[in-house]
Amino acid sequence: MSKDIYVVVEQRNGNIQKVTYELISEATKLAADLGEQVVAVLMGYKIADKAQSLIHYGAQKVLVLDAPVLEHYTTEPYVRGIEYVIKNYEPNIVLFGASSIGRDMAPRIAGRVHTGLTADCTRLDVEVSKYQEYLRKATNLPEEKIMALDTSDRNLKMTRPAFGGNVMATIVCRNYRPQMATVRPGVMELGEKDTSRTGEVVMVDAGLTEADMNVEILDVVKQTKKAVDITDAKILVSGGRGVGGPEGYNPLRELAAELGGEVSSSRIGVDSGWIEKDRQVGQTGKTVHPELYIACGISGAIQHQAGMEDSEFILAINTDKFCPMMQLADLGIVGDLKKIVPALTEAVKAYKA
Ligand code: FAD
């Protein structure tokens, strides 16, 4: 019988990526609802020492696939590794980060194990059965008791934006196992690390060899420019079409530097080649939760809001006082950003002096 929630760990050069910890944190909540365990699947070479950190975030068990062919991410050996785990351990649910690696692996694995995949999820819940609904209405039983009384119909509800972000679609996979989803980085809440947690580490030999490689790695070239991770920034100064061009981001950079934040952008700035893709906020960009989000010349299209609406405080600077961003904002300044942003920078400098 299919059982437990498996999280496919994403590591780069031995560093576990934040999305993995977010997924483990979310999986622990789902596992509590289902009465199942969280199992992390860690793949790489000489990687077993990283297993403990997965346990500290809530994995009860870590399956480690350690092989020289897994030293660098390549599609085929990694896909075979997860395929082996699914066929031999029969998980109920398998979760991947919706990163470039997760998006590469997950659909191939779904095809090979003949199940469905919901890509780019922004929310996961456990379905409640009709029996549970009845118990909730007709009795005073506590929630844990109700969940424990019935294990039927507990499918995973996988929610993702559809039709250009205009509706949220909730998808269930009733007839096939495992239920598989990729989840967007930055969406699920990161739980607390607890070094007193203990768990089991199991070395798994999936029989992966050089013969599983269908490409040859000749050289690994590291990106010289450090990629920015806007999802970690506490303050974001974000620009849209209203900045007018690539140089229009310079005043935003100055303000961000004064505030100790980062610059981000709407998709228009990225598509126009004004700013790097890794700074895009929104449905097809990154999901951010900064303490302060300053939206400069951004109208607030639904696809942009999808990536920033949970910011703690939103300041909108826009010439159009009726635009959606003004409706969403905690505070709005109506006017030309070319005057307002430099004035804000000066005000921050004066405050700090
Ligand atoms: P606009 O909507 O053109 O708004 C520009 C704003 O600037 C206006 O409100 C205007 O009043 C203001 N302005 C102009 N001049 C000034 C000035 N001098 N001072 C102050 N204000 C000024 N968009 C994203 O951002 N992220 C995504 O991830 C994303 N994904 C998408 C996915 C799909 C499938 C689709 C269909 C669209 C997606 N979009 C995304 C695009 C989105 O629909 C909008 O087109 C985009 O967000 C608009 O960007 P904007 O607000 O910068 O530009």
TrEMBL record:
Residues 5-217 form the Electron transfer flavoprotein alpha/beta-subunit N-terminal domain. Pfam families: ETF, ETF_alpha. One of its GO terms (biological process) is fatty acid beta-oxidation using acyl-CoA dehydrogenase. SUPFAM superfamilies: Adenine nucleotide alpha hydrolases-like, DHS-like NAD/FAD-binding domain. FAD binds at residues 241, 266-267, 280-284, 297-304, 318. InterPro entries: DHS-like_NAD/FAD-binding_dom, ETF_a/b_N, ETF_a/FixB, ETF_alpha_N, ETF_asu_C, ETF_asu_C_CS, Rossmann-like_a/b/a_fold. GO terms for molecular function: electron transfer activity; flavin adenine dinucleotide binding. Its cofactor is FAD. PROSITE patterns: ETF_ALPHA (PS00696). Binds 1 FAD per dimer. Keywords: Electron transport, FAD, Flavoprotein, Transport. Belongs to the ETF alpha-subunit/FixB family. This is Electron transfer flavoprotein subunit alpha/FixB family protein. It comes from Pusillibacter faecalis.
